[in-house]
Every structure is written in C-alpha cells, then in structure tokens.
Amino acid sequence: MRVYPFRWVYVSRNLTEDRQVDEIRAIARTAAGHGLNGMVLAAGFDRIDLQPAGWFARVGEVARIVRDAGLEIVPTLFSAGYGGSVISHDRNLAEGLPVRDSLFEVHSGEARLVADPPVVFVNPGFEESSGDRARGYSFHDRPGEVSFIDTEVYRSGAASLRFENFGGFQYGHGRVMQEVAVRPNRQYRVSVWVKSDQLAPAGVFRVQVLATDGRALAPWDPKLAATTDWRKLTLGFNSAGYDKVRIYAGVWGGESGRFWVDDFSVEETGLVNVLRRPGTPIAVRGEAGGIAYEEGVDFATIADRQLTFRFDHDGPAIRLLPGSRIQDGERLRVDYYHGMSINDGQVTICMSEPATYEIWRKQARLVHDLIGGKRYLLSMDEIRAGGTCQACRGRGLSMAQILGDCITKQAEMLRDVNPEADVLVWSDMLDPNHNARGDYYLVDGDYTGSWNYIPPDLGIMCWYYARRRESLAHFSKLGFRTFAGAYYDGDTLDNPRGWLEALDQTPNAYGIMYTTWQSKYALLADFGDLVSER
After folding, report:
1. What is 6-91+348-532's CATH number, 3.30.750.24, 3.30.1490.20, 3.40.190.10, 3.20.20.80?
2. Domain 129-269 CATH class label
3. What pTM was computed for the model?
C-alpha cells in the first residue's frame, strides 16, 4: 500500500468575507496536521480582473496561511461548463442554440413574433375528464390510485390533477405527460402551476421536455419546496431537429406527500436570451421576396437587455429605423441563436469564440502574478452544451476535437506565464466511462475520443467513484498521471478507501484529494491519517 506524493484538500470560497479566511485557516491547520500537503483552491480565479480590492487582500492572506502551514496552493480555474466567470465579462459568450425561420410580423414600426403555428396543448386545466382520467394526455400514472381529478383544490377553472400514494409503488412515479407538435429549431416556453404538501424527498419534482427519442431538451431543477401554495414554474427549450416533444410534470422516485398540477401553457417565443457575438449572427429577411435586411440600416440593433438565460421574460421586438426597406404589415423570417441555463442555473460558454480565450489568457497572467504556484487544476468538468453555434460548426471539428483544443490552449496559457507549470484537469469530459460520449445534454456532437487531443503530460483528476477502476485504467493505459477526487460529502471513509484500493492497482497513480462540494470537513483529519499513514 502506497503513500501517494500528492495528498490534497479541495476548498471553494469566493473570499467576499473575512470569515472565509478564518475558515481556510482552520482547514489548512487540520490538513497539515494530518499529513496532507496541498490545497486546491477555487476562489474566482477566472475573473481576477473584476474582483474588488478586498478580495486581493484576502487571497494574499490565504496564500500566506496555506504556505505557512506547509501546504502547496493549487488554483483551479478555466471553467467552460460552469461559465459564470466568463459570463461576468460578457454574457454573450454563452453557447448558442440555433433558431431558424422564426416568424415576425411588422406593425407600427415594430416586428413581433407570430406563433408559426400556435402550439396546441389539449385540456391544460384538466376540466375535461372521464372519472380520474384526464382527456388529451398521453398518460398520467395510475389514475384512481396515484393520480386523481380534483374538483375541490385547483388553481383556476374547475379542476386540477392531484398526485399521492406514489411512494407505495415501484419507482415512486407520479407523472403526467402530453405529446405536442412543434417546429424544428424553434424556441418555446412551458409553464405549469404546482402546489405541494409535504412532498418528499427534496428536489423530486420535475418539469421535463423530452424528444421522442428520449433526449432531454430542457434539463432544469425547479427547486420546488416540500410544501408550497400554487407556484408557477416556467422553463424554455429549443426544439432542435424535432417536430414533436413530450411535456412531463411530476415526480420520479417520490416517497411521500402529495402535489397538484394545473394550467399548463406551451408557447413559441422569439429572441428570448438572444446572443450577440461573431459566432451567433442574426439574419432577418422578408418572407415573400427573401430580401435580406441589414441591422443598423433597416432595423435597430437587436439585444435582449435582460439576458437571464431563463425564460421569465419576453424577447425584444425588432424596431424599424427611419428609411427602412421593411414595410408595415410585412412578414419576416428571422434566424438567431439563444442561450439557456441548465439544471440550477448552469450556463456553458462557447469553446470556439476567440473572445473566450482573450479573457482566460488575461486570467492566466494575473493568477500567476498573484499566486505564483507551480500546479493548476483546469475546471473543465460537465460541459453540457456545445457545437450548436456558428463559431463551433464553422470549424469543421468534432466536439472531441473542440474540447481537446480548448484544454490544450488553456495549458499553453498557463505555461506561457510559467514554463514549468504542472497542469491537471477533471476527468469526466475525457473519460468514455463517464461524460466523454455522444447524446450529452444539449451538446450537438460527440465527446468520444477527446482524450486523444490533449497534452500527454496532463494529470487527470478522476472523480466517478462507481467506475473508478475503469476510469483510472483508461487514463493509465494512455500514459497519463492519475489522481483521485475522493470523499464527496459522505459520512464515512468508505469512498476514499475504495479509491485507495483502485489507485494501488493503477500504474501512474500519483495522488488523492479530499473533495467536498458541501463544505463538509468533519472527516478531513481522518482522511489525512488514512492517506498519509498507510
């Protein structure tokens, strides 16, 4: 059994408050006192040029604390999947989904969206039913046992659909679904009203939009409380290449409680979260004659001033300029790209837009000047969108190549400022046992083979516990140095013990890290003893 040379702890703090410095001091003291020798620090290093003065003072103090404790400090930066830092520089650098031939009609100097055609959603308020079966829906789980037409509790009209008892059946499903027709490559908004009563477990309720082949078009977590009065949930999706979608609401794996759904709405939207950068161009043309109209000449610059990446607002109208060739009453066809968030607000940025790399290159210089460390961890995990904007499609590369090129450029940036920089990266987007595959969230393309396009001297931080042996073997056989991101907020040391057993069987294994996303450090001392006193 080996004692690995790199024994680290992961810490994430935005360093907006002095108390966070004290928290890191305590973590560093525990880590050093129990045999660890490094701290991977996530502290906003992707946006150093936007940080306030107090942040720099705290980073300086943290660096001193960590080094005085005898730990190496390893900054983590350059996230494409969780692109908030790049978005804070320019929100238009989000990855864009294409909209084609969206219909707008001109009246009184403005062109506004016209649904083409309007979405038909049958019986949205559950007023039409036979017993406990609602008309128009493809299914709802176990009418009369799990799902019930409720004429006493409803948001509007005269009825709602109530779910309960789902925990008494295999899988705990309590869902309702309707299949609707859409136009490919259009933008849509879905809303539904929901009421809950002691619903468990937490986070079990979902609204989903699935293509007919099962692909999720709107991965989203509504954060519905266990008990809440009627609440409107709204999400958006791009229909991609599909002409039918399945709208779901309900619970998967529910255990107890009950909830009601009412008043569905599905509508086409236009220019919501429209992106404006070279790789996301807009085209406006007359429907009848195909005349291509010019921005700044025929119509004013188009921009969504809110650009929240949510669908809680309407997109802008197209405003005609004096002397425009566009006529009142004319119908226009519009192509554009929009961004959207995934799950709990995650926004992926474009890995093909040159401006992204200008931002990162500046941060590489700043983090080196600030920390001066030797090792860095690239935060390139869970990249859930890509390959859909013109910047990506125009390169003629696969998504595996685009990702590999991105990681290669990031490593080069760090080595430009520190030629001896040792660069590591999270494993998942490079691992065929994990996320390096096709059909991945909103990605148009396939990440398979991404590991062939990255520098061979990178260290790989593996973190998928269930496939740890396969993952470690994959990278070791390719000659990469391997590390384990262990622990993951459990209550025992079973996870790091399992990683250590796998590392011991892996050539080129170099280290292990105590990794917590919930800032749980109760097991840090025991972890340190485990990995340093073997």
Report:
1. 3.20.20.80
2. mainly beta
3. 0.96
